[in-house]
Design a protein that fits this description.
By secondary structure, the protein is mainly β. It contains 3 helices and 14 strands. The longest helix is centred in the first third of the chain and has 8 residues. The radius of gyration is 21 Å and the shape is globular. It starts with 6 loop residues before the first helix and ends with a strand. The relative contact order is 0.16.
């Protein structure tokens, strides 16, 4: 070991690790629980996180004006959505995580929430009140556990049909959970 005499080097050389690789305080012998918790659940998506939705085409959903499209494989401002749980929805689910069957709201970069009317998918209104039947989307996934980055999800509108992508246009035409309706959720991680 190189000796520089600096305190930081000494502390690094004295750092201890338990059998799982977690840092242990040399004197107290305790595992740093905050580090191990973050290491276990870095991909979990929570209310208020920024996410991207990749369609089966490889392109991400985006909003231009009030249209929801899927034209590019970008993760730019137009493609990001903030995923939320509405305070108006009363249920017994965990308020800090999303599970299959939860109602979600997706706020676009424009400030408007994704909404579905008939077959059409828009992002028209910045408020949720009065538009819950169109803006509330039930999220379903086939894997157990909370929603995490990389999960394949399906977004079901109030009329029972799922958002799908054909070419570069998002629609809501069928009740199927097939390839055209599959979206991969990708969490934006801090830089």
């Amino acid at each position: 070991l190189r000796r520089s005499g600096r305190k930081a080097d000494l502390v690094r050389r004295l750092e201890l690790h338990d059998a799982t690789g977690h840092t242990v305080e040399p004197i107290a012998g305790k595992v740093d629980a905050s580090k191990s918790r973050k290491a276990r659940e870095p991909k979990i998506i929570e209310p208020g996180d920024t996410v991207y939705l990749r369609a089966h085409t490889g392109n991400h959903l985006e909003v231009e004006c009030d249209q929801v499209l899927a034209r590019w494989d970008d993760q730019g401002e137009w493609q990001h959505f903030v995923i939320e749980k509405s305070p108006l929805v009363i249920d017994d689910s965990d308020k800090t995580k999303f599970q299959s069957g939860d109602m979600v709201f997706l706020r676009a970069h424009t400030g408007a929430y994704i909404d579905v009317e008939s077959d059409y998918v828009y992002a028209r209104w910045a408020e949720q009140s009065g538009n819950l039947q169109w803006q509330g989307l039930v999220i379903t996934k086939r894997t157990p556990g909370p929603l995490a980055s990389g999960d394949t999800i399906y977004l079901q509108a109030g009329h029972g049909r799922h958002i799908d992508v054909q070419r570069d246009l998002a629609r809501a035409r069928w009740e199927d959970e097939g390839d055209w309706q599959a979206l991969t959720v990708e969490k934006q991680f801090p830089k």
